[in-house]
Amino acid sequence: VKTSLNGLTEKGAHGEADEALPPWLRSWLVVAGVWLQVIVVVFIVVCVSHVKTPVIYWVDKMNDLFTESR
Amino acid sequence: MIPSQTGHVLLGTAVALFYGGAVMGIGIPLLAVFMGRQAVATVRARVGLLGLLWLGFVIGQGILGVLWLVLSLGGIFHSWVIWVVCGLGWFLVCAMALTVQRQDLQPGRECWTGVLSFPYSQSWYFWVGMGIVVVGLFHGVIALLPPWVDDGLVRYLVSPRMIAATNRLEFQPFLHPYYTLQPLQVEMHWAALFAVSNETAVTVWDYLCALSFLSGIGFLAWSLTSSRKVALVAVLMMLSTPAFYAMMGGGKIDNAAAQYGIAAFVWLVIWPALGRRAVILAGLCAGWAMACRYTNIILLPALIVFAVLVARSPWKAFPVGTTINQLKRSWITNAFLGGAAAGIAGAPMLIKNWLLVGCPLAPLFGCQETFWAGIFRNVMSHAGNISAVDLLFYPFVWTFATRDNMLGNISPLFIGFLPFLIVIHRRSFMVRSALIAGLAGVVSVTTWLFIEPLRLFTRLLLVPLGLLAVPLSASVIAVEQDRRHDHRVRWLVKAAVAVVLVFLLFESRGVIYAGRYLASADSRADWYQSSPGYDVALWLNAHVQPGERVGLANFEGHRYFVDSHVLLNSETAEEIQWLWEHGEWRHDYSGSIAPSSWAPDFWHFYQSRGFTYIVIDKDRLQEAIEAWPDNSARLALEVAAMGRRSGVLKIHKQQALYKAVSTN
B224: closest CA among B183, B177, B262, B187? Predict the structure, then answer.
């Protein structure tokens, strides 16, 4: 059986299960999943249509502002 | 009857594959000789048989790169020498195949059985793996196209092509802004392939090196976590990075350079089991990474941090381990050996510069009064591409924004997976193990931010991205595998990965153009017709006779299109130095150096040096013609050709027939 650096195997770490997450943190995983979906979809929309995301739009606005002030 | 273009592409592909086999054939025996049979078995136990083959492939590249450099500096870089070395490599492959014993084949069989049983496991990851394979194959077909990245056409491909044409590595005055003074570890392989074949061999080889980099990430992830799923998702993260997949086979050195960096980290993972030999090999790989790109110096602090964490990890897991105590005692020795190995691998590039121009660290340090150092300074002073505001939003700018010369973003999976890592990093054994790579990645990126905070070129940070991919993918796999978690999380992750794979298939649509090119439905001219300088270069290639000199200092086109005989008859280093000193010169990204105002002195210069053709930016043609000196009694000037962006002026050795020519 292949063993990794910390003694991990395909079956798990030293036969132990990972520590359980507290319930409030588990719900955050759903939020993380939604975040992942949003990021992926926005990325594809940006790549295909070359529109700017709101964050990049405001970053570019600020860049323009600083350039003008110089 | 196979069309000549199709035959050309197929031949190049075959040569690249043959060359790859020879590189592996040389690397693996060298590795075995250096390490010994027992150590080879240890490496195979850590990274598997395929991992061992991959490490041999990378080591073979490193060794051959140095050999090609030595041969080219000696002026004996002949195609027959390269064929002999490749033949030797294949002889060693055959010898290994014949001497391999039945028990040696067992791990390979097990590995293959594992792969073949994957479809029957009904694992969703099988389909992810298949998606990665399909996208990878599509990019392989796309690599059959002529090189498309501007940087490659301006410089990276020109240098090896000229080395192959002249059988010698020299200072190349026509090659702005590096003139063969940049590290050439990757380009030496391209030069070898140009010498024995054609550009398709180079692009396919570049693609193979990119695949090798992906494999390296997979092996690193696997060796840290023992999870094939983590390795698969880490590979997907890099494959979905536009700055990576857009360069596969494109004629840029970065994907190939990144192999060495990842290999150095894999050697450090094996270090506790293998001892000093692994440190030496890690040092060699780190040195070769820097011999590809000086910017890979950002890997050094990361390697140190990684080594410290690797040495600590087994100590925590196995407190009784005497090996670790020995490792602690010999820490300084190991650091010295690793550093010395890196120095030995990197030194040939400095010696090369010393031989070419007398300044080992040129063009960065030394020889600063020369034209090439001046031009290099000029280029570097304009290299920043992001602002301080961009710096504040670094991950978002890196993922979503387009900045000058950035040449691609990172995969959305990097910031997409980040919340999973934040939530779960303390509670999963697998993620904790993978975090070692992540910390090294963070150190590497931070080092870059200290050196060049306002330069965001994804291609320079491929190795840190590969390192960061490991804990991120481990965290997602840990969440996805834990049945105690909400099932919606699993579906959200699976859906995101599926969407990314579909997007990657869409992004591989270049395979259609590649198919047309392979079938000779599209020609090379169709592919390049809108590229800067292609028209003028074709005209020069067809019309410049042997012995005729061509002034190319003002040429605003890609040097790659210009034949070697034309480039060799352009301005010498001494002539460009004169031009640099006698005019106020402007720099342009394309590689041209144009005078701020044309004066008769420039024409006297070109006349006295026996130039026949001068290429000038079309917008400045009229100004140049008007500066033609009246006292050129036996010489005349005429417009010989007019391209989209540049014109070609011809100096006739006849009676003065000058007349102003309209450029409209």
Answer: B262
Size of interface A-B (CB pairs under 8 A): 157
Whether chain A has a CB inside 8 Å of the CB on B450: the answer is no
Query: B499, A41: Cβ pair inside 8 Å?
Result: yes
Question: Do B284 and B345 meet the contact criterion of CB atoms below 8 Å apart?
Answer: yes
Nearest C-alpha neighbor of B261 from the set B221, B231, B226, B217 = B217
B485·A2 Cβ contact <8 A: no
Alpha helices in B508-599, H assignment, sequence order: 510-518, 524-528, 534-543, 564-568, 573-582
Rounded to whole angstroms, the Cα distance separating B302 from B228 reads 24
What's the gap in Å between the CA of B52 and the closest CA on chain A?
14
Q: In chain B, positions 221-280, which contact chain A (CB-CB < 8 Å)?
A: 222-228, 242, 269, 272
Strand pairing report for B549-551 and B611-617: parallel
Where are the alpha helices (H) located in B197-275, listed in sequence order? Answer: 199-225, 228-239, 242-245, 254-274
Q: Is B424 on the interface with A (CB under 8 A)?
A: yes
Cβ atoms B559, B175 nearer than 8 A: yes
Instruction: Name the nearest CA neighbour of B294 among B184, B190, B445.
Output: B184
* Inter-residue contact B181 to B363 (CB < 8 Å): yes
Residue from B579, B630, B637, B578 nearest B612 by CA: B637
Cα–Cα distances (Å) from B520 to B10, B149, B207, B209, B409, in that order, read 12, 21, 21, 26, 32
Nearby residues of B515 by Cβ (< 8 Å), 6 or more positions away? B141
| Chain B hits for A14, Cβ within 8 Å | 429
- Determine how many CB atoms are found less than 10 A away from the CB of residue B557: 27
Q: How far is the C-alpha of B134 from the C-alpha of B121, rounded, in Å?
A: 20
B334–chain A nearest CA distance, Å: 19
Per the CB < 8 A criterion, the answer to whether B571 and B580 are in contact is no
Question: How does B380-398 read in b/e, with b if 16+ C-beta sit within 10 Å?
Answer: eeeeeebbebbeebeebbb
Of B622 and B112, the one with more pLDDT: B622
Q: Do B417 and A27 touch (CB under 8 A)?
A: no
Contact flag B493-A5 (C-beta cutoff 8 Å): no
B320–A contact, CB cutoff 8 A = no
Per-residue model confidence (pLDDT) at position B48: 87
Which residues 6-45 of A are in CB contact (within 8 Å) with B?
Answer: 6-10, 12-14, 16, 18-21, 25-37, 39-44
Report the alpha-carbon distance of residue B322 to residue B332 in Å, rounded.
18
Predicted-assembly ipTM surpassing the 0.85 threshold: yes
Cβ count within 10 A of residue B19: 24
Neighbour-count burial of B580, counting CB atoms closer than 10 A to its CB (0-12 exposed, 13-18 middle, 19+ buried): middle
Interchain CB distance below 8 Å, B426 and A42: no
Phi, psi of B646 (to 5 degrees): -130, 160
Asked if B636 and B656 count as a contact pair (C-beta separation under 8 A), the reply is yes
In this predicted structure, which of B6-15, B24-33, B54-63, B628-637 has the lowest mean pLDDT?
B628-637
Flag if B226 and A66 touch (Cβ within 8 Å): no
pLDDT in tens, B155-198: 999 999 999 999 999 999 999 888 999 999 999 999 999 999 99
* Binary contact (A4, B433; C-beta < 8 A): yes
Q: How far apart are CA B303 and CA B290, in angstroms?
A: 13
Q: Are B265 and B63 in contact (CB under 8 A)?
A: no
Contact B620, B553 (CB under 8 A): no
CA nearest to B428, candidates B491, B494, B488, B481: B481
Q: How confident is the model at residue A5 (pLDDT cuts 50, 70, 90)?
A: low
